[in-house]
Design goal:
The protein is mostly helical and 177 residues long. It has 8 helices and no strands. The chain has one domain. Helix content is 67%, strand content 0%.
Length: 177
C-alpha cells in the first residue's frame, strides 16, 4: 500500500479534539505501507533525528522549542544560581521563538500548555509542507496524535491533584528531616 492510501484512510485531526487512535495503532497501520520508514516513525515519536528530512527538521525545531521553554521556566525561579544549558541547533527560527514566547506568557498553566501545543501543531504542519500525500505528512500525523492525546489527558482536577501530591510528599520529607 502507498502513503497516499494511508493518509486518505485516516480520520482527520482537529487541534484539541480527542485522538481517534493511539500512536501505537497508527504505527501498526504504517507497518505495511511502502514509503514509511518505521525507524523514522520511531524517531519522530521520540523527537530525535532520523534519516528523513522531516525528522531532522522536526528534531531541530523541537530542540529549539525545548530551549525556549526551558529559558522561560528558569526565568521564573528566584536566585542567581539558576542556569540552563541550551542544546545546539542547526537553524534559528525567529518566528517559532516568538510564538513560543507568546504562548509562555499565558498565566493559566492549562491554557499555557494548550497554547504551547498549538505552536507545536503549527510547527508540524509547516515542516510537513504542501504535499498532502507525502511521507512528511504521515510523520506530522504522529505529532498531532501525540498532541491531542496529551491535551485530552490534562485537566484542572488532575493538575490540582498533582500539586497536592507534590506538596504532601514534600511536607513529609521536611517533617522527617
Amino acid at each position: 500500500m502507498s502513503v497516499a492510501f494511508l493518509l486518505s484512510s485516516l480520520p482527520s485531526l482537529e487541534f484539541g479534539a480527542s485522538a481517534p487512535l493511539s500512536v501505537a495503532d497508527y504505527r501498526a497501520r504504517c507497518e505495511c505501507i511502502n514509503g514509511i520508514n518505521l525507524k523514522d516513525f520511531d524517531a519522530v515519536e521520540a523527537g530525535i533525528p532520523g534519516s528523513h528530512s522531516f525528522t531532522l527538521a522536526y528534531s531541530n525545531a523541537l530542540t529549539e522549542f525545548k530551549n525556549v521553554t526551558a529559558f522561560y521556566r528558569a526565568s521564573k525561579w528566584e536566585g542567581e544560581d539558576i542556569r540552563i544549558q541550551e542544546r545546539s541547533i542547526s537553524d534559528y527560527h525567529v518566528d517559532l521563538r516568538k510564538k513560543i514566547t507568546e504562548a509562555c506568557g499565558e498565566k493559566n498553566p492549562l491554557k499555557r500548555e494548550a497554547a504551547l501545543e498549538q505552536v507545536r501543531w503549527q510547527m508540524a504542519e509547516e515542516l510537513a509542507g504542501m504535499g498532502y500525500f507525502s511521507e512528511a505528512k504521515a510523520y506530522a500525523y504522529i505529532i498531532k496524535l501525540q498532541i491531542n492525546s496529551r491535551l485530552s489527558s490534562l485537566s484542572d482536577e488532575l493538575g490540582k491533584k498533582a500539586i497536592e501530591e507534590f506538596i504532601n510528599a514534600n511536607d513529609q520529607e521536611v517533617v522527617q528531616n
